[in-house]
Amino acid sequence: MNFVSIRIITADVARLVDFYERATGITASWSTEDFAELNTPSATLAIAGTRTVPLFAPNSAHPADNHSVIIEFLVDNVDTIHQNLTNSVTDFVNEPTTMPWGNRSLLFRDPDGNLINFFTPVTPAAIQKFTH
To answer: How far apart are CA 119 and CA 105, in angstroms?
Structure first.
């Protein structure tokens, strides 16, 4: 088994794709006006509109209703990213903070309220964990 993607359901695909393109620097690949993907070397962030939900099961997912998942991105320098995001992110949950497990993390919300964590390993153990 290989974990390949996470999908966010949104009422406004274009707005959310634009936000993630600006935040990550990754250009999305659009399949339809209701579905786009931001591909990274390790996984894909898919963004889909509410019209795609009935294709799986009606009412099985609701936009802007996440209260338990944090979407995480490994970045080269979280402090630099924080400075670059100050004009496009309106809801920072915390400033860059070094966590007990060795990652320096920046937690913020996307326009739908989903929690996003950009992090950089800073301790030797954390760096080793993410070195391939």
So the answer is: 4
Residues 126 and 102 in one domain: yes
For residue 61, being part of any structural domain is answered with no
Q: Is 47 helix (H, G, I), strand (E, B) or coil?
A: strand
The pLDDT tens digits along the chain (132 residues) read 999 999 999 999 999 999 999 999 999 999 999 999 999 999 999 999 999 999 999 999 999 999 999 999 999 999 999 999 999 999 999 999 999 999 999 999 999 999 999 999 999 999 999 986
* Reported pTM: 0.93
In which domain, by residue range, is 28 found? Answer: 1-52
Residue 59 inside a domain? The answer is: no
